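Quiz preparation item.
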């Protein structure tokens, strides 16, 4: 650190002489440094020191520890630690040696504590796992894909990324059904893109194993099988599936709206289709930088699973030919904050048949990089559970060998 030449006062001369004399007494030297740092941050109007300004206190203390010929008698790290300890004592009344937290201070009395010790985090982990249901490794009902992801656990956030038409919503509905049919958990489904009527149609198609046109025809003739299917879904999902679309006043939902709904519905799985449509932001990056940390915090605090669907821009679709991952709106920032990311591709084989490829671009629980051709029914737009692993093609015209 380059220090400007200055003429030290008698007080400063005495201070750095005392620091130099205590070179062989590190504990006493540390106490002297901390006391000086605390004095500086309490405010010294003659020297223009601002109250609780640790940056300025650090600079001042470094200068006080430097002799006129430019020699500093203590390591810069000791000065940093002295300022940190003094700041902790002033703000919390707890010394740094006994405290396992750091604090972020906002306006007024708004204070955020961040715990730091492995003992604390380990205790939180054990408490959380004991509170989980017996069958916690949620998946899509597609065994190979689920094994590659390594399971989807409470407190985790998963992203489904793909271009329009890549069947993100269909895959999300697979997970929704796995939760509702195999556990007693609740699902909160924010359908911000597709209307709730369209989602209801998809569920009826799955239940009746038929095309959308068939459901419409049954509805027109008031077919009893349609009524029975609707009643079966109501009984199976009663008080456990919360399907949320737009507000009645037509205003898009904000994160605060969604959080309020989460508090009232107490879900185990939250699906957001799709995340870019959360209202109140001027750009995708502004949204992701604000909302993703809040989602991650909510997942950890309340033990929720979040499944976030994200659209892919034109640049991402073109770049899919070259690599897996980083193609969601928000790019690397979006992927980096997720526990699991699955990227969906659409591809045609040599016969012109369409295929949906799911690539595991990131997982903290399994092996990333594997890709699967996941079979789906054109009638119901639902995935059957069958899949096969595929490798990338060598030609630029295609992504996968089918």
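Solution:
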């Amino acid at each position: 650190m380059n220090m400007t030449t200055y003429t030290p006062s008698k007080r400063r001369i005495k201070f750095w002489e005392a620091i130099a004399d205590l070179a062989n007494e590190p504990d006493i030297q540390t106490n002297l440094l901390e006391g000086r740092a605390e004095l500086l941050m309490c405010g010294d109007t003659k020297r223009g020191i601002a109250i609780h300004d640790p940056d300025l206190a650090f600079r001042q203390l470094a200068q006080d520890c430097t002799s006129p010929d430019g020699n500093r008698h203590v390591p810069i790290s000791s000065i940093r630690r002295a300022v940190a300890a003094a700041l902790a004592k002033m703000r919390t009344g707890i010394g740094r040696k006994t405290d396992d937290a750091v604090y972020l201070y906002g306006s007024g009395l708004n204070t955020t504590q961040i715990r730091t010790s492995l003992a604390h985090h380990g205790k939180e982990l054990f408490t959380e796992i004991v509170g989980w249901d017996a069958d916690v490794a949620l998946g899509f009902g597609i065994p190979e894909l689920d094994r590659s992801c390594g399971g989807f656990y409470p407190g985790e956030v998963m992203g489904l990324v793909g271009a329009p038409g890549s069947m993100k919503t269909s895959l999300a509905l697979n997970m929704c059904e796995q939760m509702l049919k195999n556990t007693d958990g609740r699902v909160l489904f924010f359908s911000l893109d597709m209307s709730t009527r369209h989602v209801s149609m998809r569920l009826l198609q799955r239940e009746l194993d038929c095309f959308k046109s068939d459901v419409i025809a049954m509805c027109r003739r008031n077919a009893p099988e349609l009524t029975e299917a609707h009643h079966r879904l109501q009984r199976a999902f009663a008080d456990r599936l919360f399907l949320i679309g737009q507000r009645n006043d037509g205003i898009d939902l904000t994160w605060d709206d969604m959080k309020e709904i989460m508090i009232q519905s107490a879900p185990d799985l939250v699906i957001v289709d799709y995340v870019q449509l959360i209202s109140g932001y001027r750009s995708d990056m502004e949204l992701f930088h604000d909302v993703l940390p809040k989602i991650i915090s909510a997942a950890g605090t309340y033990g929720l699973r979040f499944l976030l669907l994200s659209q892919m821009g034109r640049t991402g679709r073109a770049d899919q030919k070259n690599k897996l991952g980083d193609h969601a709106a928000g790019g690397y920032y979006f992927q980096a904050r997720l526990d699991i990311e699955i990227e969906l591709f659409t591809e045609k084989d040599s016969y012109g048949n369409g295929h949906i490829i799911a690539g595991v671009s990131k997982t903290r629980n399994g092996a990333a990089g594997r890709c699967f051709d996941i079979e789906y029914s054109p009638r119901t737009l639902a995935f059957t559970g069958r899949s096969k692993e595929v490798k990338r093609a060598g030609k630029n015209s295609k992504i996968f060998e089918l």
